[in-house]
């Protein structure tokens, strides 16, 4: 029993960290691309970006399950599907975390870097990324929290190989007649860890807004 719980915890951490890192990278580049679009195109893309947040979790979970059922030959069951699924619903939150930072940036800074001899890649790395980095950190923490907390998408997309995260393990354990005692201190540790991450994120955001 304890071994299954440890495996579920490891799977949860691997899934959350992998999905958060990928979502943060994808979200950062997607936000920069959205920012450079014309007004009408930007409005359309941002509307599409908000669909995963507007729809209920069960709608997205069933949609992803049907997608993987159709393309099962390309996406093997297990961690691969879970990471793709979590990236799909975490990335829009990263975009919304980074976009305000990008909108506050002076657009002339990028042009000035190019005029001073920097390549587009160097200007991106040395001008834009440092400017939006606080938003990337906030998006990463939010993605990490959402991934750890998720149940519906994970349950519908994990397949039948016996792979469990904490949420699906707790669900299965509760259906058998009650929660194991080991879960109580684990809940406390997870709650405290997430609370600390959110406090740190809010403090960073407050300091950045003062600057």
Detailed description of the structure:
With 211 residues, the chain is an all-alpha fold. The chain has 9 helices and no strands. α1 runs antiparallel to α6, α1 crosses α8 (166-175) and α4 (79-104) packs across α6. The protein is globular, with a radius of gyration of 20 Å.
Can you tag this structure with a few keywords?
globular, 9 helices, single chain, 82% helix, mainly alpha, 211 residues
Summarize the helices and strands and which ones pair or pack.
Layout lengths: L1 H34 L3 H16 L2 H14 L8 H26 L3 H8 L4 H30 L2 H6 L8 H10 L7 H28 L1
Helix pairs in contact: 1-4, 1-6, 1-8, 2-4, 4-6, 5-6, 6-9
Structure, briefly:
The chain has nine helices and no strands.
Element pattern in H and E: HHHHHHHHH
Percent in helix: over 70%
Query: What portion of residues belong to β-strands?
Result: under 5%
Annotation, overall tally of beta strands: 0
């Amino acid at each position: 029993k304890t071994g299954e719980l440890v495996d579920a915890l490891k799977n949860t951490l691997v899934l959350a960290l992998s999905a958060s890192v990928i979502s943060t990278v994808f979200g950062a580049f997607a936000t920069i691309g959205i920012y450079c679009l014309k007004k009408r195109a930007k409005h359309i893309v941002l509307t599409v970006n908000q669909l995963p947040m507007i729809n209920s979790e069960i709608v997205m979970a069933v949609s992803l399950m049907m997608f993987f059922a159709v393309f099962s030959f390309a996406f093997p069951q297990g961690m691969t599907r879970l990471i793709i699924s979590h990236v799909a619903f975490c990335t829009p939150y990263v975009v919304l975390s980074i976009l305000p930072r990008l909108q506050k940036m002076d657009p002339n800074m990028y042009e000035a870097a190019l005029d001073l001899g920097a390549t587009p890649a160097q200007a991106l790395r040395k001008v834009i990324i440092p400017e939006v980095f606080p938003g990337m950190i906030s998006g990463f923490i939010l993605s990490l929290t959402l991934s750890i907390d998720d149940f519906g998408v994970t349950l519908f997309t994990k397949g039948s190989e016996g792979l469990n995260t904490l949420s699906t393990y707790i669900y299965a354990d509760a259906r058998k007649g009650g929660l194991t005692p080991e879960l109580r201190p684990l809940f406390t540790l997870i709650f405290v860890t997430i609370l600390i991450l959110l406090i740190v994120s809010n403090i960073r955001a407050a300091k950045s807004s003062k600057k």
